[in-house]
Write a structure and sequence with these properties.
Elements: H1 5-8, H2 20-36, H3 52-55, E1 76-79, E2 82-85, E3 93-97, H4 117-124, E4 129-133, E5 139-147, E6 150-151, E7 154-159, E8 164-173, E9 180-189, E10 194-201, E11 206-215, E12 220-228, E13 232-241, E14 247-255, E15 261-270, E16 276-280
Parallel strand pairs: 1-5, 4-7, 5-8, 6-9, 7-9, 8-10, 9-11, 10-12, 11-13, 12-14, 13-15, 14-16
Antiparallel strand pairs: 1-2, 3-4
């Protein structure tokens, strides 16, 4: 009997290697997911996005022979949901797996209001990466995510004041696999900081990308994404412009054929006057 994606999300499985404070948040997230339930076409933001093809997909066991050689050009990333960190990332770059965090992170979102699948990421991720960036020089990072089955990559990116960062993120697959990747990224920009996040999605399976960002005074966020080959793609973003002069620019291009589904849902919250946003899809 095949294991479908719908079957995998029914039960909560505690990750015993994670700190207790994270396990508690994972339990809260799973309870929130159960309360919200799966979305349907009756929900406005899911009106044109069929969910049945995803829930019925067979979840293949991730291949155990994938290793870091697939990520030679990456500074960091995930292999089947497990973090990979290259040695010697350089000054101003601090990356810590969640499993090695001794104290709770002050920023930790359970999920996005527009999609219950973001809560499922919090409930089921195996481990995550906490990235702190602080430098007077411009920083550049390459991140690669590779999957051969079901995985839940999780990122928290914190950019310190007066720091400028470019992060390139590629989501790929192992050969002859059609993985299901449910990813969540949290972004926190301090005052006078900026982040350019460039995302390339090229896996043939299912991709759920959930992003939540908080911007302080005079900070700037650029989000660029290219979607192609994905059988089913859903992207939810919530951007909070919390202080004056905060701004964001979002551009996305999807290359699809008749057999592919793609949906993007964007919420931008202008919390204070003199904030600015631009979008182009």
């Amino acid at each position: 009997m095949k294991t479908t994606y719908q079957n995998t999300i029914k039960d909560f499985q505690n990750n015993h290697h994670l700190p207790d404070w994270i396990k508690e948040l994972q339990r809260e997230a799973f309870d929130a997911f159960k309360d919200k339930g799966l979305p349907t076409t009756a929900h406005e933001s899911w009106k044109y996005m069929p969910l049945d093809p995803v829930l019925a997909l067979e979840c293949m066991q991730p291949r155990q022979d994938l290793d870091s050689s697939h990520l030679l050009d990456a500074d960091l990333g995930f292999i089947n949901g497990k973090p990979y960190i290259k040695k010697g990332l350089g000054e101003g770059i601090e990356v810590t797996p969640f499993s090695q965090l001794k104290t709770a992170i002050k920023h930790f979102e359970l999920g996005l209001r527009t999609t219950p699948f973001s809560y499922l990421n919090t409930a089921h991720f195996y481990d995550g990466l906490y990235i702190k960036l602080c430098s007077k020089k411009e920083l550049c990072l390459n991140l690669n995510i590779m999957s051969s089955g079901l995985s839940y990559p999780r990122l928290i990116i914190e950019v310190s004041p007066h720091t400028k960062v470019t992060l390139c993120c590629g989501v790929n697959q192992s050969s002859e696999s059609h993985p299901i990747t449910n990813m969540m990224t949290e972004i926190h920009l301090a005052q006078e900081s900026s982040l350019s996040l460039i995302e390339l999605y090229s896996q043939k399976g299912v991709m759920m990308n959930n992003t939540i960002a908080h911007l302080d005074e005079n900070s700037h966020l650029d989000l660029y994404s290219l979607i192609h080959q994905n059988q089913w793609f859903r992207q939810d973003r919530e951007i909070f412009l919390n202080q004056s002069q905060a701004s964001c620019k979002i551009k996305s291009l999807g290359l699809l054929d008749h057999s592919q589904f793609s949906s993007q849902h964007l919420s931008i919250h202008h919390q204070k006057p003199d904030t600015h946003s631009e979008q182009l899809f």
